[in-house]
Amino acid sequence: xxxxxxxxxxxxxxxxxxxxxxxxxxxxxxxxxxxxxxxxxxxxxxxxxxxxxxxxxxxxxxxxxxxxxxxxxxxxxxxxxxxxxxxxxxxxxxxxxxxxxxxxxxxxxxxxxxxxxxxxxxxxxxxxxxxxxxxxxxxxxxxxxxxxxxxxxxxxxxxxxxxxxxxxxxxxxxxxxxxxxxxxxxxxxxxxxxxxxxxxxxxxxxxxxxxxxxxxxxxxxxxxxxxxxxxxxxxxxxxxxxxxxxxxxxxxxxxxxxxxxxxxxxxxxxxxxxxxxxxxxxxxxxxxxxxxxxxxxxxxxxxxxxxxxxxxxxxxxxxxxxxxxxxxxxxxxxxxxxxxxxxxxxxxxxxxxxxxxxxxxxxxxxxxxxxxxxxxxxxxxxxxxxxxxxxxxxxxxxxxxxxxxxxxxxxxxxxxxxxxxxxxxxxxxxxxxxxxxxxxxxxxxxxxxxxxxxxxxxxxxxxxxxxxxxxxxxxxxxxxxxxxxxxxxxxxxxxxxxxxxxxxxxxxxxxxxxxxxxxxxxxxxxxxxxxxxxxxxxxxxxxxx
Length: 545
Prior knowledge:
By secondary structure, this protein is mainly alpha-helical. 72% of the residues lie in helices and 1% in strands. The protein has a two-stranded antiparallel sheet.
């Protein structure tokens, strides 16, 4: 083993050890509950859980709702990807930023917005689909369509226009060019987007919990129910094992597809063109998509301002109280402060670790062993995408509860869990940027006598600082809205804002419901402000997946 490989292993030791303690150990602990319920290996218990009729119903609903959510996201997202990444539309960048906001909104906020729209007294209450599978799928599409727009749109921008022009010159109709030239060239991006959307749909928690109620359950919400209400830990662990296997498989498939080189990609981005008559359907569908995304948010804001038959800020003023009938242990304003502090801690953890990992895996490899090791490290730190946040949170509880790792009372426990959720996003934002830097610049700096830290400051930092700020912004937004792991780990006296919102929804009283709406608006406004600020950096963060 040469010196460079040993050096790489030495540098990777600290992040890998931390990852082992705060990710591998909790997940392994959760798996052990299912496979070793009494300290002895018992796979039959997992098989019994998976053979239950209710488990079959939950699995079937998870599969078909995720598949339908993915299909509808593609159906709505592909025309918008074309219109916003190939056409010169008014306020195009603003529209792209607004389309990104739903993706980073807290899932609890999305659920509350749709509940306000679909409940009996809501604008669409006459449809009678509140707390049904239709409502859940609608929420999933709202949350995930931005992934399709960004992932496919970035690839669409980079397509070499000459094959399509040649086909048109030979007499192919526009739909024939799309079907025979454009879509085959976009296949890797479309498959990648579909795999990511399916993953997010299958592991959605807050949306299903708030929109599905007691009628609808996915694997994610079933794990939560089994652990918090029924205390059937072996069943919860069995579902977690199945979910991990399926989702990690999807990640590997998506990663393999993205690794296939596309000969139709141009090195230069084509110029945007003015929309013509044939572009009207895509522009119209993009407009409908914007309306679809705007209506639930508008219903949420309007609902927060309605008290009785009039308009009032009473719901917002009540955020400084503990709610009707003392529904909360602390006011919403205090929970917001906890969320902001937690998000700050989670952000510096995720960004610091993500930057170090990205630098580690993008340095030039001189041997096949070194290249494989860097690829292994890159894939290792993407694993949190394949594990339910609910599984991760419960794993924290059952593994980090004994000396020397008794962290149940640590203030940093929740930030660590949220940082793990945000870490893959940070890594995937920074890796393409750092990998795109010409290594000859680093070699030139080194040949002039610059030490490694100086090379980092002179060569890498000027290129990566904007993506780094973008990664920090998205990590902050993800942390603010994280609910799956936090619902297990947040202490009652210091809950985060998503936890408080769900608590208010579960308490009787019109004021409590109005406070939940107002708190959701506040949380959505903070997240949207962060995302819009990040978007000004013009970083294709979602496309980085």
